[in-house]
Amino acid sequence: MEENYKPVSYSQTTLTELMIPAYANFGGKIHGGILLSLMDKVAYACASKHAGNYCVTVSVENVDFLQPVEVGEMVSMFATVNYVGKSSLVIGIKVIAEDFKQGSVKHTNTSYFTMVAKDDSGKPTKVPALLLENNEDIRHFMEAIKRKELKETYKIELNNAKTILKVETEKHILEGERCKIGFYYKNNK
Ligand SMILES: CC(C)(COP(=O)(O)OP(=O)(O)OC[C@H]1O[C@@H](n2cnc3c(N)ncnc32)[C@H](O)[C@@H]1OP(=O)(O)O)[C@@H](O)C(=O)NCCC(=O)NCCS
Questions:
Q1: Which of 11, 145, 161, 169 gives 49 a disulfide partner, CB atoms 3.0 to 4.6 angstroms apart?
Q2: Which range of residues forms the domain containing residue 138?
Q3: Is residue 155 within 6 Å of ligand 1 at its C-beta?
Q4: CA 53 to centroid of ligand 1, rounded, Å
Protein backbone atom coordinates (compact mmCIF):
# COMPACT_ATOMS: atom_id res chain seq x y z
CA MET A 1 0.00 0.00 0.00
CA GLU A 2 1.21 3.54 -0.83
CA GLU A 3 2.68 5.37 2.23
CA ASN A 4 0.92 8.53 3.36
CA TYR A 5 3.54 11.28 3.98
CA LYS A 6 3.08 14.55 5.80
CA PRO A 7 5.78 17.26 5.72
CA VAL A 8 7.48 18.32 8.96
CA SER A 9 6.30 21.89 8.37
CA TYR A 10 2.62 20.83 8.36
CA SER A 11 2.52 20.21 12.12
CA GLN A 12 5.14 22.67 13.41
CA THR A 13 3.53 24.40 16.37
CA THR A 14 4.50 27.36 18.56
CA LEU A 15 3.07 28.07 21.99
CA THR A 16 3.80 31.44 23.56
CA GLU A 17 2.86 32.43 27.09
CA LEU A 18 3.62 35.30 29.44
CA MET A 19 5.10 34.18 32.76
CA ILE A 20 2.75 35.65 35.38
CA PRO A 21 3.48 35.87 39.17
CA ALA A 22 1.12 32.92 39.87
CA TYR A 23 3.62 30.66 38.05
CA ALA A 24 6.50 31.49 40.41
CA ASN A 25 8.08 29.23 43.01
CA PHE A 26 9.16 30.35 46.51
CA GLY A 27 12.43 31.65 45.07
CA GLY A 28 10.58 33.93 42.66
CA LYS A 29 11.53 31.92 39.53
CA ILE A 30 9.05 30.06 37.33
CA HIS A 31 8.12 26.53 38.53
CA GLY A 32 9.67 23.78 36.39
CA GLY A 33 6.28 22.05 36.46
CA ILE A 34 4.60 25.01 34.70
CA LEU A 35 7.10 24.74 31.85
CA LEU A 36 6.67 20.94 31.69
CA SER A 37 2.90 21.32 31.47
CA LEU A 38 3.22 23.85 28.62
CA MET A 39 5.72 21.56 26.84
CA ASP A 40 3.25 18.67 27.14
CA LYS A 41 0.50 20.82 25.59
CA VAL A 42 2.57 21.92 22.62
CA ALA A 43 3.88 18.35 22.11
CA TYR A 44 0.28 17.12 22.09
CA ALA A 45 -0.83 19.74 19.55
CA CYS A 46 2.11 19.03 17.22
CA ALA A 47 1.84 15.22 17.48
CA SER A 48 -1.95 15.12 17.10
CA LYS A 49 -1.85 17.40 14.07
CA HIS A 50 0.66 15.11 12.34
CA ALA A 51 -1.14 11.94 13.44
CA GLY A 52 -4.66 13.20 12.73
CA ASN A 53 -5.52 11.41 15.93
CA TYR A 54 -5.51 11.72 19.71
CA CYS A 55 -1.96 11.21 21.13
CA VAL A 56 -0.64 10.36 24.60
CA THR A 57 2.70 11.20 26.20
CA VAL A 58 4.85 8.11 26.73
CA SER A 59 8.29 9.39 27.58
CA VAL A 60 10.11 12.67 28.20
CA GLU A 61 13.84 13.11 27.60
CA ASN A 62 16.43 15.79 28.06
CA VAL A 63 14.62 18.06 30.47
CA ASP A 64 17.51 20.10 31.84
CA PHE A 65 16.62 23.70 32.60
CA LEU A 66 19.88 25.41 31.79
CA GLN A 67 18.80 28.85 32.99
CA PRO A 68 15.94 29.98 35.24
CA VAL A 69 12.88 31.66 33.73
CA GLU A 70 11.80 34.88 35.44
CA VAL A 71 8.34 36.33 36.10
CA GLY A 72 7.49 38.79 33.30
CA GLU A 73 9.38 36.91 30.61
CA MET A 74 7.62 35.69 27.48
CA VAL A 75 8.23 31.98 26.90
CA SER A 76 7.95 30.48 23.43
CA MET A 77 8.02 26.77 22.70
CA PHE A 78 8.72 25.54 19.18
CA ALA A 79 7.53 21.99 18.58
CA THR A 80 8.52 19.90 15.57
CA VAL A 81 8.02 16.25 14.67
CA ASN A 82 11.60 14.92 14.69
CA TYR A 83 10.85 11.26 14.08
CA VAL A 84 8.00 8.85 13.45
CA GLY A 85 7.93 5.10 14.08
CA LYS A 86 4.77 3.09 13.50
CA SER A 87 2.46 4.60 16.12
CA SER A 88 5.02 6.74 17.97
CA LEU A 89 6.33 10.23 17.24
CA VAL A 90 9.23 12.11 18.78
CA ILE A 91 8.49 15.80 19.20
CA GLY A 92 11.49 18.10 19.67
CA ILE A 93 10.65 21.21 21.72
CA LYS A 94 12.95 24.20 21.83
CA VAL A 95 12.15 26.62 24.65
CA ILE A 96 13.24 30.24 24.70
CA ALA A 97 12.48 33.03 27.17
CA GLU A 98 12.39 36.68 26.16
CA ASP A 99 12.99 39.60 28.51
CA PHE A 100 11.36 42.65 26.89
CA LYS A 101 12.99 45.18 29.24
CA GLN A 102 16.54 43.89 28.67
CA GLY A 103 15.83 43.06 25.03
CA SER A 104 17.40 39.65 25.61
CA VAL A 105 16.46 36.12 24.54
CA LYS A 106 17.76 32.97 26.24
CA HIS A 107 17.52 29.33 25.27
CA THR A 108 16.41 27.48 28.38
CA ASN A 109 16.16 23.88 27.11
CA THR A 110 15.48 21.55 24.21
CA SER A 111 13.55 18.44 25.19
CA TYR A 112 12.11 15.43 23.43
CA PHE A 113 8.62 14.07 24.05
CA THR A 114 7.69 10.62 22.73
CA MET A 115 3.98 10.49 21.97
CA VAL A 116 1.84 7.59 20.74
CA ALA A 117 -1.24 8.00 18.52
CA LYS A 118 -4.33 6.15 19.67
CA ASP A 119 -7.47 5.11 17.83
CA ASP A 120 -10.99 5.49 19.17
CA SER A 121 -10.71 2.23 21.10
CA GLY A 122 -7.49 3.41 22.81
CA LYS A 123 -5.12 1.18 20.81
CA PRO A 124 -1.87 2.51 19.28
CA THR A 125 -2.55 3.38 15.64
CA LYS A 126 -0.30 4.05 12.63
CA VAL A 127 0.81 7.63 12.00
CA PRO A 128 1.66 9.12 8.58
CA ALA A 129 5.29 8.85 7.48
CA LEU A 130 7.41 11.99 7.57
CA LEU A 131 8.45 14.08 4.56
CA LEU A 132 11.85 15.60 5.42
CA GLU A 133 12.04 18.95 3.68
CA ASN A 134 15.55 20.18 4.48
CA ASN A 135 18.87 19.23 6.10
CA GLU A 136 17.62 20.22 9.55
CA ASP A 137 14.68 17.80 9.26
CA ILE A 138 17.08 15.07 8.14
CA ARG A 139 19.45 15.79 11.06
CA HIS A 140 16.56 15.72 13.57
CA PHE A 141 15.38 12.33 12.26
CA MET A 142 18.91 10.87 12.35
CA GLU A 143 19.56 12.20 15.88
CA ALA A 144 16.27 10.67 17.08
CA ILE A 145 17.34 7.25 15.73
CA LYS A 146 20.66 7.62 17.56
CA ARG A 147 18.92 8.63 20.84
CA LYS A 148 16.58 5.64 20.51
CA GLU A 149 19.55 3.27 20.14
CA LEU A 150 21.36 4.88 23.09
CA LYS A 151 18.20 4.64 25.23
CA GLU A 152 17.95 0.91 24.50
CA THR A 153 21.59 0.37 25.49
CA TYR A 154 21.11 2.47 28.64
CA LYS A 155 17.98 0.50 29.59
CA ILE A 156 19.83 -2.81 29.27
CA GLU A 157 22.82 -1.52 31.28
CA LEU A 158 20.56 -0.08 33.97
CA ASN A 159 18.71 -3.39 34.33
CA ASN A 160 22.02 -5.26 34.49
CA ALA A 161 23.28 -2.86 37.16
CA LYS A 162 20.13 -3.42 39.22
CA THR A 163 20.57 -7.18 39.19
CA ILE A 164 24.31 -6.99 39.89
CA LEU A 165 24.05 -4.54 42.81
CA LYS A 166 23.69 -6.28 46.16
CA VAL A 167 23.48 -4.15 49.31
CA GLU A 168 25.51 -6.70 51.33
CA THR A 169 28.49 -6.85 48.97
CA GLU A 170 28.46 -3.53 47.05
CA LYS A 171 28.16 -1.01 49.91
CA HIS A 172 31.66 0.28 49.10
CA ILE A 173 30.23 2.37 46.21
CA LEU A 174 28.76 4.69 48.88
CA GLU A 175 32.28 5.70 49.96
CA GLY A 176 32.83 9.43 49.41
CA GLU A 177 29.08 10.04 48.95
CA ARG A 178 27.15 12.41 51.23
CA CYS A 179 25.22 9.78 53.12
CA LYS A 180 25.57 7.50 56.11
CA ILE A 181 23.86 4.32 57.14
CA GLY A 182 21.74 4.70 60.24
CA PHE A 183 18.31 4.02 61.59
CA TYR A 184 17.24 7.49 62.71
CA TYR A 185 13.47 7.08 62.38
CA LYS A 186 13.47 3.58 63.82
CA ASN A 187 15.51 4.64 66.88
CA ASN A 188 13.60 7.88 67.45
CA LYS A 189 10.03 6.60 67.21
C1 LIG B 1 2.72 3.69 25.54
C2 LIG B 1 1.64 2.68 25.30
C3 LIG B 1 0.69 3.19 24.23
C4 LIG B 1 2.32 1.39 24.79
O5 LIG B 1 1.32 0.47 24.57
P6 LIG B 1 1.65 -1.03 24.06
O7 LIG B 1 0.36 -1.75 24.04
O8 LIG B 1 2.78 -1.57 24.84
O9 LIG B 1 1.98 -0.77 22.55
P10 LIG B 1 3.29 -1.07 21.72
O11 LIG B 1 4.24 -2.00 22.39
O12 LIG B 1 2.78 -1.42 20.35
O13 LIG B 1 3.99 0.35 21.65
C14 LIG B 1 3.44 1.39 20.89
C15 LIG B 1 4.54 2.36 20.56
O16 LIG B 1 4.98 2.97 21.77
C17 LIG B 1 6.39 2.92 21.81
N18 LIG B 1 6.80 2.89 23.20
C19 LIG B 1 6.32 2.09 24.17
N20 LIG B 1 6.95 2.34 25.33
C21 LIG B 1 7.85 3.33 25.08
C22 LIG B 1 8.80 4.04 25.86
N23 LIG B 1 8.97 3.78 27.16
N24 LIG B 1 9.54 4.99 25.28
C25 LIG B 1 9.37 5.28 23.97
N26 LIG B 1 8.48 4.65 23.16
C27 LIG B 1 7.74 3.69 23.72
C28 LIG B 1 6.76 1.64 21.08
O29 LIG B 1 8.09 1.66 20.64
C30 LIG B 1 5.77 1.68 19.94
O31 LIG B 1 6.26 2.56 18.94
P32 LIG B 1 6.05 2.24 17.36
O33 LIG B 1 4.59 1.90 17.18
O34 LIG B 1 6.39 3.52 16.69
O35 LIG B 1 6.95 1.13 17.00
C36 LIG B 1 0.86 2.34 26.60
O37 LIG B 1 1.78 1.87 27.55
C38 LIG B 1 0.11 3.51 27.18
O39 LIG B 1 -1.00 3.82 26.74
N40 LIG B 1 0.68 4.21 28.22
C41 LIG B 1 0.01 5.29 28.88
C42 LIG B 1 0.26 6.61 28.17
C43 LIG B 1 -0.52 7.73 28.81
O44 LIG B 1 -1.68 7.58 29.11
N45 LIG B 1 0.15 8.86 29.02
C46 LIG B 1 -0.42 9.99 29.64
C47 LIG B 1 0.22 10.24 30.96
S48 LIG B 1 -0.57 9.37 32.25
A1: 11
A2: 5-187
A3: no
A4: 15
Span 148-168, pLDDT tens digits:
999 999 999 999 888 888 888
- State the total domains in the chain: 1
Atom 20 in ligand 1: residue holding the nearest Cα? 58
Strand partners, 111: 93
The SS3 assignment for 13 reads strand
| Pocket of ligand 1 contains residue 32 by CB under 6 Å | no
Q: What is the DSSP string of 138-173?
A: HHHHHHHHHHHHHHHHHHHHHHHHHHH--HHHHGGG
* pLDDT exceeds 90 at position 53: yes
Contact by Cβ (8 Å): 87, 116: yes
> Ligand 1 center to residue 151 CA distance, Å?
15
Q: What is the DSSP letter of 174?
A: G
Would you say how long the chain is, in residues?
A: 189
Q: Is the CB of 125 under 6 A from ligand 1?
A: no
User: How many Å apart are CA 185 and CA 189, to the nearest integer?
Assistant: 6
CATH number at residue 24: 3.10.129.10
> pLDDT confidence of 11, banded at 50, 70, 90?
very high
How far apart are the CA of 58 and the centre of ligand 1, in A? 6
